[in-house]
Design a protein that fits this description.
- The complex is a heterodimer of chains A (221) and B (242).
- Chain A has 221 residues and is mainly alpha-helical.
- Chain A has one domain: Orthogonal Bundle (MetI-like fold).
- Chain A contains nine helices and no strands.
- Chain A is globular, with a radius of gyration of 21 Å.
- Chain A starts with 8 loop residues before the first helix and ends with a helix.
- With 242 residues, chain B is an alpha/beta fold.
- Helices cover 37% and strands 25% of the residues of chain B.
- In chain B, helix 3 runs parallel beside helix 5.
- The model of chain B has no long low-confidence stretch (mean pLDDT 93).
- Classes of the chains: A mainly alpha (221), B alpha/beta (242).
- Chains A and B meet through helix 5 and helix 6 of A and helix 2, strand 6, helix 3 and helix 5 of B.
- The structure holds adenosine-5'-triphosphate and magnesium ion.
Chain lengths: 221, 242
Amino acid sequence: MFKYSFQWRPVLQALPEMLWGAVVTMQIALIAMAIGIVVGVAIALGRRSANGIVRSLSTGWVEIARNTPALLQIYMVYFGLGTLGVRVDSFYALLAGIAFNNAGYLAETFRGGFAGVPETQFRASRSLGMSAFQTMGYIILPQMFRLVFHAMTNQMVWSILMTSLGVVVGLTTDLTGVVQQLNVRTFRTFEYFLVAACLYFLIAKVVTVAARILAWRLFRY
Amino acid sequence: MIEVSDVRKSFGKLEVLKGINLTVKKGEVLSMIGGSGSGKSTMLMCINGLEPIQSGRIVVDGIDVHAKSTDLNHLRKRIGIVFQQWNAFPHLTVLENVMLAPRKVLKKNRQEAEQIAVRHLKHVGLGEKLKVFPSRLSGGQQQRMAIARALAMSPDYMLFDEVTSALDPQLVGEVLDTMRMLSKEGMTMIVVTHEMRFAREVSDRVAYFHQGKIHEIGSPEQIFGSPNQPETANFLKSVHGA
Ligand SMILES: Nc1ncnc2c1ncn2[C@@H]1O[C@H](COP(=O)(O)OP(=O)(O)OP(=O)(O)O)[C@@H](O)[C@H]1O
Ligand SMILES: [Mg+2]
């Protein structure tokens, strides 16, 4: 019987490298989340637009993002744009792919959130002379974000985990990429992946707790 | 002065206002009474441009509300409105609720806006509730806050749409008192109300809405004492407090 003997020392030595990978992972996830929120709001509003083209594009985005594998979405950005002659760095391809996915899921979440803010809030705000834009920024969005905050936290965690798909477009700097490289060099597969999994788990938990604290600070009412 | 001439308004096929003519002078208090669905709320919404109209004209101090060139946000600074319910912005404290529009619309700085807000909140008896969120207020307090919020814009006109009808009976009085106070201070007001005793007491004129028209309009003594139209008399008979 093949006997696998655990060796933790090389893993421990590689830990700083992995932590740097985790930083890159967080970087991608956070930027992709920020883009996803902004674009998601735009799409959610676009789906209620009077303009038919805007409406179709918005709906199309949501449908594709939610009904195709995230892996393929990332592929499409990387290789799809590649065949069109646009070379995309694997970091940005992954970032764009996840942002695309986030925006689609969040748009759907936000749509529900907007529906949960009473129409009368809009009227009350406009009646004070506030513009549609001000009303959105000061009255509607803050209430909407509260309603969907939990779902947004979930998407953030999902976004972190999705970064591990970067290996398929050759990303070597994020946590999974780093581990993959180490694995190729040393074949300590199980140890590295176990530690990586623990790190992902830890990050996800920290993010969830941080989000809860943020919500508690933000939504005092 | 608010001048409404021959205003027609439909929601889809349903014609809700069927040719309204009305003039409200500076300092006047006009009450609108009438059955459910007669178009009173719609009339108020048209006056500050929250709802478009199909034909006719509404002119406020010489400004045609529904003209394409009219800056509605500018006009609305001068016309305060308080609705039946859900007026409060739940994510803002009482003080922030009242400060927001003076800051963002009138471009006051924080201190000025706060001074204005505190003054109006004290005026309506909410000086002790500045840092509280609306969810902690009673319905009557929420409505008084909404009144303060509208007053903080220094409007020339105040529109009230059944501001007491979602309130528990014991809270109605405090809100009516606040409106009474405003009328004494000379505020020009249009008050949609089911409180007939109040309408009789504070109004200079009373308009009875019936099926999208002003069926009868006159002094409170005349409308409540000796209505000319049988529909007006029937309506008054059907409501309490007349
Ligand atoms: N946004 C809307 N879309 C379609 N129909 C509407 C809308 N708002 C009001 N209506 C209709 O217009 C008519 C007049 O409504 P309005 O709210 O002006 O009546 P009201 O006199 O204020 O009645 P109430 O005393 O019940 O408040 C009603 O038949 C109502 O169903
Ligand atoms: Mg009404």
